[in-house]
Amino acid sequence: MKRAVVLLSGGLDSATCLGLARASGFDPVCLLVDYGQRHRAELAAARAVARSMGVSEVREVSVDLQKVGGSALTGDIPVPKDRPEVERARGIPVTYVPARNTLFLALALGLAEAVGARDIFIGVNAVDYSGYPDCRPEFIRAFEQLAALATRAGVQGEMFHIHAPLSGLSKADIIRTGARLGVDYSLTRSCYDPDPEGGACGRCDSCLIRRQGFEAAGIPDPTRYARP
User: Fold this and answer.
1) Quick one: which of 23, 12, 22 has its CA closest to 174?
2) Where do the domains of the chain lie, and which CATH numbers do they carry?
3) How far apart are CA 18 and CA 32, in angstroms?
4) pLDDT tens digits, one per residue of 94-129
5) What is the model's pTM?
């Protein structure tokens, strides 16, 4: 089995991405990043997801993006709540973390080169998402080109492949895919502003998109929301 580095956040997208990597015949090395996010409950969820899928190697890296700031996920900026769909589709919200996916992929690229993997999986989505620029296919293609120039393996002719298998899927399609693969979504966490016990607020953009995704997929949502 070929090795692949899978970025695992603990949310349903990355859990589905891990399921797809395994179904494609890869031996995953999961990379978790503690970047000072206010929703750190997702890290425990990521570990649980990795265990449930029999992943034998999980690496964790800490980078304090609170010192960079500029996001409601790493600073004292309030997380937007109860935004209607038309508002969520307009502009880039304050939950955008500057250069987060660039950083994540750089860490994954370094790990991939170190462990001899040439494939990296990331669960970005360009359909039901919050308008983040680093979730777009153009960004993924550009980073793949960067990987060829920035690594020893790349300059020696070994290509890295950045897989974003969820990019063109709706949230409902992602959930249907994960359900088919046996992903246990009860282990995942998506909320941007959970309570101290890790319960989902039910009101942030991520909670609203997640809940609507389960409804559209016709699959029961196992999430415990603070607000029904």
Assistant:
1) 12
2) 2-217 (3.40.50.620)
3) 12
4) 999 999 999 999 999 999 999 999 999 999 998 766
5) 0.95
